[in-house]
Amino acid sequence: MAAGKSMTPFYAGLGVVAIVGVALIGRAVMHKSSQPVNLDLVAPLASGPRGVVMGSDSARVEIMEFSDFECPYCARFAVLQMPDVRTRLIETGRVRWRFVHYPLQGHTKSPTAHLAAACANEQGRFWQMHDLLYAHQGEWTEDRDLVGAITSLAVQAGVDRARFDQCMSQRSAWGRVLADKALGDSIGINGTPTMFVNGRQIPGVPSFDELRAMVDSIAPAATTARH
Hints:
Layout lengths: L7 H26 L18 E3 L6 E7 L4 H9 L1 H9 L4 E7 L8 H12 L4 H10 L1 H4 L5 H12 L3 H10 L3 H13 L7 E4 L2 E3 L5 H11 L9
Parallel strand pairs: 2-3
Antiparallel strand pairs: 1-3, 2-4, 4-5
Helix pairs in contact: 1-8, 2-5, 3-10, 4-5, 4-7, 5-7
């Protein structure tokens, strides 16, 4: 009777195939997550309220901002005006701010930034990512490794890296960006930043003092009673 052949080489071969397969899958996922996002990428529109909100639900004034992360005017407003808006209008309960994603056609790097911000939002780190994207706009827009540069900002913003990478690779938050943009398209937004105060569009890019004057006209600031 002939001796049975050893199965060791067979199982060793299967092990090699499995390792190679896992490596290829991992490489495919990493390759996808490292690719910039195209604005033409289609995804089901997310449901629910549009934009990302900061501030009290009871605020009498809501300011809605349609913004593009690659827009230099948006960056200037975010860096120069928004800190005062936050501390003096939002944190005091007078204003609720709603940021609405509106990546512009022609800004080829903006969609990747908006997806990254939406992914950060899934971890409650949207505003940290928002600030970093605008503060470092001149850097990530010029970096040859766009996704790598933006991912570094996301880590600074405090995201869980594994969850963020998965969101970026699966494009799972892209429907939120598209839903926001669809809202802007539906009302004729054609530039950024475009702002509305309680539903009324305001011209140009306002300074903090101009915004505060608008807020005061709707909801005057409380004054300290004199005795």
